[in-house]
Amino acid sequence: MSNNWLKYRPPPTIIAMIPVAVAVNIVLSTVVEAVGLPVFLDTTGTILMTALAGPIAGMLTGVLTSAVNTLRNPTWWPFVAIQIIVALYAWLAARRGWFRSLGTAVPAGLLLGVIASVTSTPISYFVFGCSTTGGIALTTKLGQLLGLSPFGACFFGSFLSDFGDKAVTFALVTTILHALPRRTAARFPLALRAVGRA
Amino acid sequence: MRFLHPFTLLTLAVALPALAWILPAPWGGAEALITALALLLTPGASPGFAAARTAVITAAPFWFFLYLLHGVGGMVTIGLRLSTMIASFVWLVAILPPARLVEAMLAAGWPVSAAFLFSATLQAVPALRERAQRLVDAQRCRGLATRGGPLVRLRALRALALPLVLSALHEVDERALALETRGLVAGARRTALAPPADHRGERVLRWLLVLSCAALLVWRVA
Predict the structure, then answer these.
(1) Which one of A17, A32, A145, A161 counts the least CB within 10 Å of its CB?
(2) A73 φ, ψ to 5°?
(3) Spatial separation of the C-alpha atoms in residues A134 and B64, rounded to whole Å
(4) Whole-angstrom Cα distance, residue A192 to residue A198?
């Protein structure tokens, strides 16, 4: 990948992979529904793409995910910034080798949960009045009942939803990276570094 | 409205929610929502009642949760803005086929890879969703427990998500080869087969909408 972001021209492999990563972001909700876990996993493709191909490919995946989701539900678009932040954080995680094991990935995911909730709270508060999803609205109400300020209650709701979600997402991406055939992983130098094979 | 250039439709769909937020509440939001609903329901020129029903179904939970969190006043203020955003985009999706937007992007000089990413993603999502459903059914047939404690569910998540993602990644090589053989590399440009007409009046309208939003924002902030 070029160091000059503005002149970045993705190779055909990356162009072919981005739609797959976006579809992973969107379709994992089907799997989540099947197992009934309170997680979204809607950044799995973004994190995976970043770990494999770098931050620009990851950000493109995130922006495209928000654009496609907006066609189904327009309330997705304001959260496009979160996808970009997730991609940048995943790049840092890949460079530092945090995908080396579940022992490093899960704490890294928990930290991303904190960052994501801090970032999404102003969007959720000022644009949606914290009514983004049923779960977040109800936990925000719980925060209000506990005596938190409106903004604090909104953060409480976002934090509860993001904290576990990002940890599970990081663990899942780590599992996928380690399960990649060596021949496939070898084409992505960043991926080898992320899992500690390089 | 369908004859309008895709960029004009896109600008309208973005300008209406922007105005709902910029103009003083609740009347600004109400006026923007009425305009968005008029676009949805104008006979002969709009997607009609099916799209309006989609907008109402999407917006309804927000009104309920807003009432729960903010009472009637907050519900009306924020609900009008959110409903404008939902109605505008539901109208846009109903009236603008993605293929027409891709043609407009190509005609405007966007790289073919950008147009490909957009259209390929729209095709990839339903295909992968179908595969995910097949995988869930197959794993359940093999006796995979998807209910129980958190650890059981996490194990089930791994058993379902891992093969889904790996199988999707497995196909990337073939797709990349197909793209290369068709000359679809980054930065390549294509001639649009049927570029939508972009009249001067529409270009002026787009700029007027953008400048109006910017001027109103400055007026509100000042």
Answers:
(1) A145
(2) -145, 105
(3) 10
(4) 5
Report whether A14 contacts A58 (CB < 8 A). Answer: no
Integer Cα distance of A16 and B168 in angstroms:
11
Place of tokens 């006026």: B31
**Backbone φ, ψ for residue A100 (5° rounding):** -65, -40
Q: Do B78 and A128 touch (CB under 8 A)?
A: yes
- The encoded tokens of residue A169 equal 């997402």
What interface predicted TM-score (ipTM) does this complex get?
A: 0.87
Residue of B nearest to A138 (CA): B65
Q: Which residue of B has its CA nearest to A18?
A: B117
Say if the Cβ atoms of A20 and B171 lie within 8 Å: yes
State the first-to-last Cα distance of chain B, in angstroms, to the nearest integer: 35
Q: Over the stretch B48-60, which tens digit does the pLDDT of each residue have?
A: 788 888 889 989 9
- Dihedral-angle region of residue B196 (phi above 0 means left; psi in -120 to 50 means alpha; beta otherwise): beta
- Give Cα B111 to chain centroid, integer Å: 21
Q: What is the C-alpha separation between A39 and B132, in angstroms, rounded?
A: 17
| Cβ atoms within 10 Å, residue B31 | 16
Q: Is the pTM of this model over 0.90?
A: no
